Amino acid sequence: MSFEVGFETVGNATLILHDRRPLLVTDPWITGPAYFGSWGLAAQIPDEQMEAIRNCEYVWISHGHPDHLSGDSIQLLRGKKMLVPDHEGARVYNDLKQQGFDVHVLRDREWLELSPRVRVFSIADYNQDGVLICDVNGRLVLNLNDASDRGWGGFVRQLTKKYQRSFLLSLAGFGDADMLNFRDESGGLLPLPPRNPLGATLSQRARYWGANCVIPFSALHRYQRTDSVWANQQSATWADYEDGFEHDKLELFPAYVRYDCESDQATPLPAKRNEGPPIDPKEFGDDPKEPLTGDDKHNLRKYFTSIEQVAKTVDFVRFRVGGEESLIEMSKRNFARGLTFEVPRNSLMTAVKYEIFDDLLIGNFMKVTLHGDWGSGRLYPDFTPYVAKYADNGRAKTLSELRRYHYAYFRRDPAGWLRHRFEAGFLMPLQAATSSLLRSRLGANSKFFRAVKRTYWSLRQVR
User: What is the residue range of 425's domain?
Assistant: First the structure.
């Protein structure tokens, strides 16, 4: 069934834009596993949409997670124009360029016309996430995938007000798209996040962004390793998105859907569930009995000690691999706060070699024991952002690199950045923000630093 102009959603976070022909596909995870074999696609991509993906001229990649940047999948799309957000550190751009792809950076908030009726722009943020805003024949599609408002939300909400028909595509789940496999010191699994009604969550988000239509997105996966299938208990089913949804105010569409942007008609697409028995980790190169080598221990130590901020908040990291333990002292303080990672050697050392430690966390086959007080956020904000976001992907490991990294994002949108940082509590109270960007660059007693509070309150008054 053909249509003139519109879009389709399939896969995990795959959006296909059309104008008489397929134009652009986002985050095409269309084949192979993700996260060291832990994730598989929840459903098969229909043949017609697979063909459309192969015929797209453009491929947009939001960020470097393998359910968005799938190595197996992009090999099927060589020769396409690869579009990436303007991330600091340019990790995705450089990696794709080195592999011979035709890569182009989309500057923040600059429209790119793909056809007479379809245009897009991208925004990158300091969490190494990226969003794609799409105007398809006068309908607005907000492809937020994994991102949350990091200072750009006010701009996007103002834009949404200009459209009568707007669609929200955003990650919503029960926490399994992040680290869940936390253990106490006796080895017991710590409580999982609450299963709040997803329909209510998506309705609230749609109101926040000003959208009037919602499509489930960016959480359409299943766990398939024998050591990670336990996490399927926390995965969302498509029926969960109905729970608490405000149908009287908003429209909810299927996860696999075609939307015609001339007639405003939606057509559900076939989605055959992927099923099968759990897969032995050895199929992905992981032998749980294989210990670390001497070189492995050296590389582990080098990797973690190079990230300077971690040593300020974590006293030690310990690895339990192949029945043996290895300890890395991060500081000379008492060992009051630390982490133990229990994980197979092959995945661990692959993550260290290619600097993709977040893939181990999200895979949920690695067990993480928390030692000391980590609070309700667990690995946030003192570990995961500095290791996975700023160091691995942002290439900011030293404190000076980290300051430059955040300053670069501040300069892109000072007002949005300040509003977000205040509301997130990063700059309040100012007297305690000893590691804040502005304090370290400008000094605690500078006139500009003191004016930040006044700026924030004036911004709140004009929202």
Answer: 413-461
